[in-house]
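Following up on my earlier thread - several people asked me to post the actual chain instead of describing it. Fair enough. Here it is, all 222 residues.
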Amino acid sequence: MIKRAVPVLLASLVLALVLPAVAPATLAELGVIPATTPPTVPSCPGSPCLAVSRTTGFQLKVGKQTKLSFAPRSGSIVAWTITLAKPNASQIKFFNANEGGASEAGIAILRAQPKPNLTFKLIAQSPTVKLQPYFGKTAQFPLERTIPVRKGDIIALTVPTWAPALALGFGKDTSWRASRGRHQCSSTSAQSTHTQIGSPIQYYCLYQTARLTYGATLISTP
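Reply from S.P.:
Thanks for posting it. Predicted structure:
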């Protein structure tokens, strides 16, 4: 038995040397940055009380931090997170009446297209979630079906109605983009949500001095 065990052990050592090392999967929280000035706190119930409305958008910059919503490596999105303000009853009533109904949101996976400029294709999306039970909190929503992404894909927030998930008061070096076309940047109550899988849309509108308060959890592919 000893004579037989030695060749087996040697063969195992040789096999270990021949096989390439496999990098372990890593977990990354997209959209998370160190403490900001001013603090990243979504508006409402203060004044002005502003919300993300009827669009799909992603954070482009927060100060010197760029590509916060871009997947740094290929893998799967397994959950998404959103920090919500706590609007008062009259503010909720106003938004519900003017922005298409009760607050809800989900995430969308976008992929940049070469032409025309600022065009992104919708690759996948999560189900939307009713948000009012989570007002005033940070909520995380695990995905029943994880969403595969490639390195460089963008994880966006998609809001068919409205979401109190907008922090204000930053400098012009903080900006986010929305799925609104040219000459539609001020039409924030017009429906522009990007929902058709495979469709390309130009994300023309750039909004400065504000931050979308959402993120996503990525598990990279080993």
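DSSP finds two helices and 15 strands in the chain. That should answer part of your original question.
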